[in-house]
Here is the input.
Amino acid sequence: MKVPIAMSASQPPLEQISQRPRAYVADGFISAAEIADVLARYDGDQARESLGIEWGSGIAGISGELPVARDALLGALAARIEAALGFGNTLPGASFRFRRYALGDFHPAHVDCYAIAGHHLVATALIYLTDAEDGGETLFPDAAGGPLAIAARRGRMALWFNYTPDGEIDPFSRHQSEALVAGEKATLAYFVYAPLFCAAIEPATARMLEPA
Here is the structure.
């Protein structure tokens, strides 16, 4: 089991944008060179056909699971996310989910509350690899105080907890991807599975919201 992780001073800080759900953003989390590398390896039909990865498609675009162990850049990104979060993924065989949306594609509302062999999906990190000019927001329709929308901006990471600090599923964390109207949307999702006590850990942030 991994112990809590300290955040490096060189990493872009998280900024809390909501308390219910507990949600954060960090702009510039991934560099332009890293984005270009990821897209060159995993985007486009020719690249996908040569990887030996099973890809799915539907109303939420084309997606595939990218094993962290196969790619040093993905391993570095996973470590960076875990350091920002303050604890590590305890599920063996971690992966990133690459997703490419076409115009009109969307993802229906859902809560990330899965468990595998005692490991719970405590937190979700979403890295935006492209800019969506219109639409494509990650929307939390039930957020306290009204719907919360996170724009899909190149280099941004959005991070949120799927459980409350006391280990209960957080209904405020229900989220969806709005339909892409203009521009591009490609993302990397990292699902952080850990013991439920990790839901009480406060990530390292530059600015915390005052209690409501």
Observations:
- The chain has a mean pLDDT of 91.
- The CA atoms of residues 10 and 122 lie 25 Å apart.
- The helical segments are 32-42, 45-49, 72-85.
